[in-house]
Amino acid sequence: MQQFAAQFGIDLLAFSILSNHFHLILCSRPDVVLTWDDEEVARRWMMLCPHHRKADGTPMEPTQPEINAIAKCPIKLAEVRQRLSNVSWWMRLLCQRVAQRANQEDEESGGFSRIVFVRLV
Prior knowledge:
Blueprint: H1 2-6, E1 10-17, E2 21-28, H2 30-33, H3 38-48, H4 64-71, H5 74-83, H6 87-106, E3 115-120
Parallel strand pairs: 2-3
Antiparallel strand pairs: 1-2
Helix pairs in contact: 3-4
């Protein structure tokens, strides 16, 4: 979770992982995201939502054309910049990864639900 949070402009202040759910204390940091240049914003997003993955499932570094597709498009760039400090997007992508990993471990597919409690500060 800490590595995942590092890609966002969100501080993970505390967490507790229990057997069937987790608790988080998060702080959105749009001020931090505003300090990142356009290519850094695009690179971070492409690492979170990559077009290509390595054989082990980790994201491949984005290519310059992939970065430019975001960095050179003011509308897409603004959208991605906002998402990188948005707790809802953080939770969406985190829960997606948890579900994918749980399904992989259980050799299952399809829907997966967890109740998540988030406290914003």
